[in-house]
Amino acid sequence: MHFDSNIKLLRKRRGRTQDEVAEMLQMKRSTLSGYENRVAQPGLDALLLFSDFYHIAVDTLLKVDLSGLSETQLRQLEQGEDVFLRGGNLRILASTVNAENQENIELVPVKAQAGYTSGFSDPEYISELQVFQLPFLSSEKKYRTFQLQGESMLPIPDRSWVTGEYATDWKELKTGEACVILTMDDGIVFKIIENRIREEGKLFLYSLNPLFEPFEINVNEIREIWKFVHFISHEIPEPVIPENQLVRTVASLKHDLDRLKLNLSEGEKGT
Question: Domains in the chain, ordered, with CATH?
Answer without folding.
Answer: 3-86 (1.10.260.40), 105-232 (2.10.109.10)
